[in-house]
Specification:
Blueprint lengths: L1 H24 L2 H57 L4 H80 L6 H11 L6 E5 L2 E2 L8 H8 L12 E3 L3
Parallel strand pairs: 1-3
Antiparallel strand pairs: 1-2
The structure holds zinc ion (ZN).
The site of zinc ion (ZN) has 9 residues, from loops.
Amino acid sequence: MEQLELLWNYQQADSAADKLEKEIKRSPTRQKLIKYRDSLLEQQTAFKRVDGEVAAMGDRLDALKDAVALTEEQLKNLIMKIESSEDSLEQVSAYISEVKRLQGNLSAYEQETRRIRKDAADRERIQHEIKVRYAKYKAEFDKLKQAYDVEYKEKSAQLEELKKAAEEKTAGISKEMLDRYRAIKLHSVPPLARLNGNQCGGCNMSLPSAVTRAIKAGELIECETCGRLLLPGV
Ligand SMILES: [Zn+2]
């Protein structure tokens, strides 16, 4: 009986510490901070993605530049051949259709180059927007972080106090009883319940009168339904 009442007092202090610990984890400032951190990561990912796209565009522009240079060289050679008038008319006519084909290629290369330049400019704008957004989120994050650090320091100190107070309440409780308390806590919180009439104060299940009598007589009995260790009602 004595042990159970000591354990009950310990449970009060233990629950208070647990409650504050949960509160710290659920702190709205902390939740907001997590949201901002996720947004910052999103912006970084987006920036990197656009960076990769811009790099690919740069590679394609280089390839186009080479293709244009090569085609211009081929055109120059063809024109020289046409102008030398050493070949047959048939041959010259073939040169001319080749010139037309190469000119078509050149114009396609130029069109693609213009399109890529425009796309690249769009992406620069997008990157700028991402940077602006990132800076905004970062400023909010830093401000919140400062507030949270203050809050966290305060609450952590309080939590330490509560944990210490709970630890002090374990004085006089046998190791066996404490172990039993902790084992029940893994599945039922709080682990102890008082009788409420003939009901378990934890899960409200009605108990046989023989059981309630035994509890009142100081026997250690766990609720058959929720597994809590039962104490007489007050
Ligand atoms: Zn119960």
